[in-house]
Design brief:
Strand order of the largest sheet: 3-2-1-4-5-6-15
Helix content: 40-55%
Shape: globular
Radius of gyration: 20 Å
Structural class: alpha/beta
Number of strands: 16
Distance between the termini: 24 Å
Mean pLDDT: 87
Largest sheet: 7 strands, parallel
Strand content: 15-25%
Number of helices: 15
């Protein structure tokens, strides 16, 4: 039954690092709801103790700064679910610790450079018999699975476009990650390489999602790397839906924001402030919200394929998808540095409750998928 761990499901010990963060807490709660007993971990023993008491779980405090001590702390665990960002600072130490400990590594990273770096561990991960799997949340499961789905329908695809409409209240961790990425500017993938996309505010267009047409603008998403790894398509543009007024302002605000946040002390102050004042969506918002995605693949012959996804609210999706990734990894034991779609296939996203995929918008009215 939903909410109970089936007898065939794996029961190996696993750990959630960054468990008391906004998303880490949601993942821990979903794990308990599914019948699991993960050990909670992070830097602050005090914050861990509060969450562990509420969920009746064990916990252990451990810093990422001492990699030897961290790898020892991971001894006996089959998998680490890493939820502490920004991952540009935290994923490296944890990946290396997992390699030393022989533990699978799964995270919710949505940062393209970090996901690209994770692929450099592919050979070592295969030698250790573990998987390094980044993007096990709303970033990047739905887009990655949708990218593979349309790419598989277009032989020799050379162009891929992905668009997401999911903006709402953001968690502190998401805001910190965005602030970390802004100095790099907007990027796209061209001929297999990340290149700058300028001037800001241009390239905006309108895309029809399942529910309605929305204005979108190019943004740097982790799929520029993840979808390239999954599909091999060398030209990828990723879009995010914004209000029209926001898109018009981008031409003026993006250069200023990029220059200001390129200054380390200013960026760190902004991230510290975000950690204090930003709150993620509450439970009613998560339950009421929804997300929409679109993908298009095309080849040089003019052949193309489109597909659409509807999912639940992004953070709710992440909590459910994360635990299902853990289940699949412990059950199937994939090896190497993989994307979610590489590990589990294009249809994995459909295992997440309330997710629907459409090949044509006409299907929406009929209810078929």
């Amino acid at each position: 039954k939903e909410g109970q761990k089936e007898e065939t499901m794996p029961s190996e010990p696993w750990l959630i690092y960054g468990a008391y963060g906004y998303t880490g807490t949601l993942v821990a709660e979903e794990a308990v709801r599914r019948g699991y007993r993960p050990v909670l971990a992070g830097r602050s023993a005090d914050r861990l103790a509060v969450l562990a008491k509420r969920l009746e779980l064990e916990y252990r405090a451990s810093s990422l700064q001492d990699e030897e001590a961290l790898s020892r702390a991971l001894a006996g665990f089959k998998l680490v679910f890493h939820a502490a960002g920004p991952f540009v600072h935290t994923s490296g130490p944890m990946v290396r610790a997992c390699l030393k400990a022989g533990a699978h590594y799964v995270d919710i990273c949505g940062e393209a450079p970090v996901i690209e770096r994770s692929f450099s561990y592919d050979v070592e991960a295969r030698q250790k018999g573990i998987v390094i799997l980044s993007g096990a949340g709303f970033d990047v499961i739905p887009t990655d699975c949708l990218a593979k789905y349309v790419a598989d329908r277009v032989p020799g695809a050379t162009e891929l476009e992905l668009a997401v409409a999911a903006l709402g209240r953001l968690s502190p961790g998401t805001v910190k990650t965005i602030l970390e990425q802004i100095p790099s500017g907007t990027r796209v993938l061209r001929n297999g390489r990340l290149v700058g996309y300028h001037p800001e505010g241009k390239g905006a267009r309108r895309i029809r999602f399942v529910d309605k047409e929305r204005p979108v603008a190019p943004v740097s998403m982790a799929d520029l790397i993840a979808a390239y790894r999954t599909t091999g398509i060398p030209n990828i543009t990723t879009y995010l839906a914004f209000p029209e007024t926001t898109i018009r302002l981008m031409r003026w605000t993006e250069p200023l924001s990029r220059n200001l946040l390129a200054v380390g002390p200013i960026r760190r102050l902004a991230q510290k402030t975000a950690g204090k004042i930003v709150r993620g969506p509450d439970e009613p918002t998560r339950l009421a919200g929804g997300s929409h995605l679109w993908a298009r693949a095309a080849n040089d012959k003019g052949e193309e394929a489109e597909a659409w996804l509807e999912t639940v609210e992004a953070y709710r999706f992440t909590s459910m998808a994360a635990v299902r990734c853990v289940e699949r990894v412990l059950e199937e034991r994939p090896c190497g540095a993989l994307t979610p779609a590489q590990a589990f296939g294009a249809d994995f996203v459909l295992q997440i409750p309330e997710t629907k995929r459409y090949d044509r918008l006409e299907e929406v009215s009929t209810g078929s998928a």
